Amino acid sequence: MEVLLVVIEELVMSELAEKWPRSDGGFGQIEQVVNSQQRQQQQRFQTQCQIQNLNALEPQRRIESEAGVTEFWDQNEEQLQCANVAVFRHTIQSRGLLVPSYNSAPELIYVVQGKFDTRAFNIITMGIHGAVFPGCPETFQEESRSQSQSWSWFSRSGRSQQSGEQHQKVRHIREGDVIALPAGVAHWIYNNGQSKLVLVALADVGNSENQLDQYFRKFVLGGSPQQEIQGGGQSRSRSRSQSESESRSSRRGRQVQESNNILSAFDEEMLAQSFNIDTQLVKRLQREEKQRGIIVKVKEDLQVLSPQRQEQEEEQEYSDNGLEETFCTMTLKHNINDPSRADVYNPHGGRVTSINAFNLPILRYLQLSAEKGVLYRNAILAPHWNLNAHSVVYVIRGNGRVQIVSENGESVFDEEIREGQLVVVPQNYAVVKRASSEGFEWVSFKTNGLAKISQLAGRVSVFRGLPLDVIANSFDISREDAWRLKESRSEMTIFGPGSRSQRESQSEREREREREERQRQ
Fold this sequence. Notes:
Number of strands: 29
Helix content: 10-25%
Largest sheet: 10 strands, antiparallel
Number of helices: 12
Structural class: alpha+beta
Radius of gyration: 27 Å
């Protein structure tokens, strides 16, 4: 609800600011107070980033469920501790359901594998995602008048109840989608395709919305989650309070299980009264006969209300008029795999597509953003640094060489990184990427809703903005060399593979011309 209050405050203040300018000294001061409160809410937990060496990381814990696998990277790794994030990956089999759960921290999910399949004008998607926002209405509804399409059940009193199905909005997801989830919002994902649905996710445990501790925690509403799932894949020792709680449960005659959902520990009669159901059903909710994990197999096709045509599913582009988007109708996903949406494109080098608080406004409150990069064979992404965010780079396909340099001018990472691995680029550390002959694709999660970079090379580099004499004296080089350093690269951000030979040929011609001039003298 804290996010809801922030949204309402900002929407109201933006409308008031348009009607009453700041010159009157009234609403301008109120707006400054609101902005100050937002800045305080967006502060992150501060961590120590004394990194001497980085490594390409792979998942360290694999947890199998009935219809899929969940893999966790070790959150105790120094670089993940520096960025204050947790990273995990779900692989969901066909007709597998990731049961409803919520997290202690905001989360970004990237769909690594999953495509649309159009057959006879029907859309067969690779995934369906649902999120339940507290206090919001069920906007997907089925007519209750249709007896053939209605749902029937019996209440505890034995009286027959009948109503049409209704639930909050569901969204079709596909490869390249980024899904944003606030802390504490319950969500679920279903794979209705024929092949595996692969998702990689980042939880921002350093975000101020997480007020528990700096470890990722997942609260599971259904299924039979393993303890490693609930603790973010971490095997932490049990506290004294946990041991005492388990002892009290044992004394009450209740069996302490290793795999429990949220409902498991409540008193049966209390739950029965709360839901207005019988205790037999409560027992089934609390204790499953078999351990299925958090990704369960759906016996028949999952029945949900959903638009059938692609044009009904496509999200409209966002245009901010102050009150257009409310908390309940916020857009949660945006596709960054479509080449036509690229922010930077070089036909000889590749493309980069970013998503931030401008094109997915919910990221303004989550304080997260993402970037999808594609480098063609041997192409280079300009060396740069992140001004205001850590960057968690996950390799989607191919491989490439990545170099990262610290503030001491020391190389902390210089390795080939391949598909399925990740590396953290700490804030302000300089980084450069070069694709191998197989090409290089990655997604970067960034810990700021409006992450910015500053380039060392390229047409918009920092050196382009410096006077020639500043460059020449800083490096003790001639003005001619300073000019070449500043002006030789005409490409923006992505450099094609042919640039090196062209540059060497140009340098050779210049050296030959200098030799000829010296000979004439």
